[in-house]
Amino acid sequence: MQIRLEPQGKQLTISGRRRVGDVIRSLGIVAGTVIVIRGDDLLTDDDAVEDADTIELRAVISGGSR
Amino acid sequence: MKCKRCTAKATVQLRSHNTAFCKECFIFFFQRNVERSIERDHMFTRDERVLVCVSGGKDSLALWDTLVTLGYQTEGLYLGLGIGEYSSASQRKVEAFATAHQLPLRIVRLEDEGDGLAIPEAAFYTRRQPCAACGTFKRHYFDQAAHDGGFEVLATGHNLDDEAARLLGNVLHWQLPYLAKQQPVLQPGHAKFARKVRPLYRTSEYESATYAFLRRIDYVVDECPNSHGATQLVYKDLLNRLEQAMPGAKLTFVADFLRHAQPLFAAAPDSPKGECTRCGMPAFGELCGYCRLVGEINRRRTPAVAHS
């Protein structure tokens, strides 16, 4: 499957059917810091994604004063 | 995973609330939570005019969308900070949202104001981080716009993660004056100030991003280029790791602080009594913080202009 990380604009490819929660964990992303988008839908941790899927992991963290 | 409210397939999982929702029920849940915060903390009523500060990001646009849906009287305020393409893109998003929903919007661009100072210039001349000037400029122009427009209330999109990170920073350094002021509602300490409110203070970033996506709100996903390496992001990372291990920790941290500890710090609120001799806004001394900063910038940039 194709994975796009936003706002970094990074592209990744992972093979094999997996659950969304496993994909997030395998990338070392902390739970709750991204929303997972497939087309017009949001996915939850227990949704499965396949090789043919393209998903976006969009960071939700904003702000940042010093 | 099923929606806890209607048992349809869930599209949103909220570990902090140990629940999950379908699209429609999440939108209801989000709006109801915001409305409850507004009512619980007596932020404002439907008879009062609310100036909503919108940056083009997910939080402020989600807030504006929610307030409009709930029937509050709102007007948007966009402050152009002059941070290159980031500011231009942000303004376009805000204008597109206001136009699509036929909402009134005020636009203030720092470059066009009397002092003509955008954030990059202010940072250059003060030799400090841009965020330092940004905070001072925002407070000044938000206050000024609310006063000029006769608004009773000034609302910002600060969310639970912002509040938790701010609280952690204030506790780490025992910033007592800041702890005294860390409240979702700040009553005006001067006749020229509006009531400042943060209706999203119990709503996480994950929830506001989810809401914005499900409501098809087109927001700026990119972050401010000046935020790289920001201390607040370090605090947020720590808190997100804590939240992963202990779902609900951020909400408990903020809510219990407000319930149990904040009143102890708030015993002697400090508010300006006088007015700035330069701009007329409330000030502790002869000049307000904004005009002191502009004075410092002007002193430093005048020789540079003279030599160019």
Which keywords apply here?
heterodimer, A: 66 residues, mainly beta, Ubiquitin-like (UB roll), five-stranded mixed beta sheet, two-stranded antiparallel sheet, 7 strands, B: 308 residues, alpha/beta, Rossmann fold, six-stranded mixed beta sheet, two-stranded antiparallel ribbon, 11 helices, 50% helix, globular
How much of the sequence lies in strands of chain B comes to 5-15%
Give a short account of the largest sheet of chain B.
6 strands, mixed
CA-based gyration radius of chain B: 20 Å
| CA distance, first residue to last residue of chain A | 37 Å
Identify the strand order in the major beta sheet of chain A. 2-1-7-4-5
Q: What is the spatial order of strands in the main beta sheet of chain B?
A: 5-4-3-6-8-7
Uncertain stretches of chain A? none
Biggest interface, CB < 8 A: A-B, 23 and 46 residues
Kindly state the percentage of residues in helix of chain A: 10-25%
**What is the strand tally of chain B?**
10
Question: Architecture of chain A in CATH?
Answer: Roll
Strand content of chain A: 35-45%
- Give the C-level CATH assignment of chain A: Alpha Beta
